[in-house]
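Table S2 (continued). Query chain:
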Amino acid sequence: MDVIIKQTDDISLLIEWRIEVLKDVFSIPKEKSTDELKAANLDYYRAALKDGSHIACLAYYDGEPVGCGGMCLYNEMPSPDNPSGKCAYLMNIYTRPGFRKKGIAKKTVGWLAARAVSGGITKIYLETSEAGRKMYRDMGFEPMRDYLQLRSLNK
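Corresponding output:
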């Protein structure tokens, strides 16, 4: 298995992958328009790649792009559990169905985490599906306690 992770700033390619991820994760029907999502993600990538608050990568298996990943970088107030205040939120970790269970997502997460650590980041976290939970736990991620989300804002 030859898996190579490469950073990319190619916005059109990132938009294609982002929409593929969203369609898969959120089970968006093929006939439903994703134009608004594309526009919003385009705005996000343009700003975040320019100011360095996002790192994106593609995973290649034997030269073929088969997965992706991203990392939002930001600062929060320093605290005992995050003295630097530097944070990385891993997102968009995705491998196409035919290439899953080959270590591609694990390599993608490792690649992103290494960049976070080399940048002095002391808090790395993510959201996961049930399918990814074991892999993340095996990599050392632990459940975060005491987090709540105000859902009424998302309706």
